[in-house]
Amino acid sequence: MDKLKSSQKIIRSSFTKAYNVFQDEMQRPSPNLTKLQTQFALIRDKAIELTELSHKIRDGMISANEQEETLTKELEIADEYATKYHQAKIELNDIMEVKATPTPSSQPAIVTYQESIRTLKLPKIELRKFGGEIKDWLSFWSTFQKIHEDATFSREDKFHYLLQSTVKDSRAFEVVNSFPPTADNYEKAIDSLKSRFGKKDLLIEFYVRELLKLVLNKNKNISLISIYDKLETHLRALESLGVTTDMCAAMLFPLVESSLPEEILRTWQRAITTRDVSATNITAKDRLMHLMAFLGKEVESEERIHMAKTCFETTNDPAKNKKKTKSDKDQDIVTAAGLLTMKETSPPKCLFCEESHDSLHCKKARSMSMEQRVTLIKNKHGFNEVSTSLANINLNTKVFLPLLKVRLRGPTGTINVRAIIDTGSHKSYILSRGAEEVGYKIIGEQTMIHLLFGGARTKPKNHQAYRIYLEHLDGSYKCDFIAFQQQIICLNTPKSNCKLWKDTLENNKVQLSDNREGDEFITILIGADVAGRLFTGKILQVDDNVTAIETKLGWTLMGKNLIDNTKEDTTLMIISMMAENGEVSNLWKLDTLGIIDPIESETKEVRQEVKTLFRNTTKINDEGRYEVLLPWKVNHPVLQDNREIAEKRLKSSTKKLRQENLYEDYEAVFNDWLSEGIIERVPESEVGDRGYYLPHRHVVKEKSTTRIRPGFDASAKTKTSPSLNQCLETGPNLLELIPAILHRFRERKIGVTADIAKAFLQISITQSDRDVLRFLWWDTQGNIITYRHRRVVFGVSSSPFLLAGTIELHIERSSNTTNSTTREAICKKLAKSFYVDDCITSVDSHADLQTFQKEATSLMNEAK
């Protein structure tokens, strides 16, 4: 046994070596077919030898009564080598099929094929496990039967799969585990399982009893959909067992019919008469088929009704959705007869004098006091003869909001605006048009989520920040604070009458800042961050409900004014549908119901968060360059050290460079980068630290200014380690910008295109992220040396986003710091014209072109 295991170990090592050489050749851009066939022949020979040795070792282990765990481990290792063999065989066949594709006769005989082979990694198929429940037997056996009938599997392997397909410590597991795992015992274990759990008569009894359970549980308010699903499941199971004859259908039909709710059963009986299902020539099997078809249509109708009722609901509160209502069978049936109540008419009779007139017009009652009238009615037990009347008192409330009229001062002018004080708001806000009208400049940006009354949350939204300057209308007080841009603060405030307290206010020398006579919109909301320093502490109680409060910007009113009115109203029933946002785009979004994946919207939110993080972490380093962080995914997989793969790819690329006489040109690029500080050599003391290595190859463009350049592969990965690109966010989708940019290119008379030279190499990478951007090259003695990138790398999935974000940030900062209107206009144009490092726009004249060229070049030169 020891000699066999030693031999097996040597052959496995030889197999692994041949397999690794085969896979290395497969990863090359143009694999050598002869080398692949040679290596596969070695793999096949070693696999045959391993199979023979495995059978001998397995038989010896069974004879020596080895533990089951040891035997199972040996089988799993043997399966791994067999899997590698079959994988290599499939890969070689795919390559040979591509190579064997015939060429047209009109083309030369020697053709280079470059086929993109796409490998789809499908999810692993897991065997259904059986625990000894009779209801699970059919589904288990339908999947395991394929293994059982496959002649290519040995019975030992089948026994192993059978043991894996049972739930541990279950009845089925105990039955299978009671047999030693040998080839002869496999059939015995299968027969034992079938006799215990797979007997046909036992299964038929089980499913018939399940139908009887539905009959017994029909009064438990089970939904029709649930009943239909269970009926179909049980009938399909019986059909697979052969219970489909007319005689059996005659037994099944009444069971199915009796399991239905009373309302459905009545509908079915009415449907029988219209479909002639009750005819004498219809068999029981056909009747059962018609009944199931009828139930299927009823279930479909229920689904449609449910969809129609719920698709436009405005609440997502599960507690409200679970609110139980009265069932259909318990609800009263509404009929037209219920609208009319008959009562025999009779002449009126007075309660006080018993004559034939209304009590309301009784002269005798008019001479009585209220107490006498009440006592008389009580003595005559006339409470049921008293008529009722209803008076509707409407309280019309006017609520005064703390409004102020203030002066808003800016670089380009001064305007009088209306402001509101809201101590429930954390921040202060200003309308966008108000900020633009006085010429305020953006000083920052913040992403906020607004929490509204009732717990509603808005989506994250960017708000631009301004420093605004307010003053009292008479100029007696001035202040400045940060306010955030908002498109709408609130709807126009209604007119209100303050003349009721005119005398009171004048007597106390109070002059309101806002007379509230117009319906002017509110331009500024003063939040709790500012309101505290505006209150002076002086208040005037105008009446019980209205209070005047003094601020440093003027007096304002708060409270409500109640006016009692007695009036008649016509009551109407109004049905309205609330819409959170009345946006026109929602109309055509309905056309995509069920098409847009919810993941898409989640992805957009994640990308927006990445952009916000980028803007908050980007800085200008000591060299005067923008320095960025790599945008790592949250909970990204751990990057493994892939130096071995990078070395193999380096040797392959070097060989090709020497064959094409491009080695010196390629090396010169790295030397230039090293002298310019684009890359740096990793110190020998840090080479042993973990890092990620970017494999690279040469890219040749004959007509380009840079004929040869390195192309780095950040998608290089192994079966156990992810690639760098899999760990990084790609940021917002830049492709969405292309249509708008192309439209602007055609907007004016002269089209303009430009790009930034070596744009990616202008942006620095922070020190902590450089070790995942390592790569290998040779020194003059032919030894491998380690470099790492100091700048953004073309080939990393996040690089386009980092470049575009840096350009956008640079333009925005330049716009905020310039005092030139021309430069500011150029900044706005550039902000809308870049796609990564390409600028595409248009101008009206040659003069505009020269101005744009000069200002744009100057602006971009401000950053390295």
Describe the structure.
This is Peptidase aspartic putative domain-containing protein. Pfam families: DUF1759 (PF03564). The chain has 864 residues and is α+β, with helices and mostly antiparallel strands. Among the domains are: 1-99, Methane Monooxygenase Hydroxylase, Chain G, domain 1, CATH 1.20.58; 134-198, no CATH class; 399-560, Acid Proteases (Cathepsin D, subunit A, domain 1, Beta Barrel), CATH 2.40.70.10; 604-862, no CATH class. It is 43% helix and 15% strand. It has 27 helices and 22 strands. The strands form six sheets. It has a six-stranded mixed barrel with strand order 2-3-8-4-7-6. Strands 1-11-10-9 form a four-stranded antiparallel beta sheet, with no helix packed on it. A three-stranded mixed beta sheet has the order 12-13-18. Strand 9 and strand 10 (546-551) form a beta hairpin.
Helix and strand topology:
Elements: H1 2-26, H2 33-63, H3 68-99, H4 137-149, H5 155-164, H6 171-177, H7 183-197, H8 200-216, H9 224-240, H10 246-258, H11 262-275, H12 284-310, H13 318-321, H14 363-366, H15 370-379, E1 393-400, E2 403-410, E3 413-421, E4 429-431, H16 432-437, E5 444-448, E6 461-471, E7 478-486, H17 502-507, E8 522-526, H18 528-531, E9 535-541, E10 546-551, E11 554-566, H19 585-589, H20 598-617, E12 619-620, E13 626-628, H21 643-659, H22 663-676, E14 679-681, H23 684-687, E15 696-700, E16 708-712, H24 738-745, E17 750-755, E18 764-765, E19 774-778, E20 784-789, H25 799-817, H26 821-831, E21 834-835, E22 838-843, H27 846-861
Parallel strand pairs: 3-8, 4-7, 13-18
Antiparallel strand pairs: 1-11, 2-3, 2-6, 4-8, 5-6, 6-7, 9-10, 10-11, 12-13, 14-20, 15-16, 17-22, 19-20, 21-22
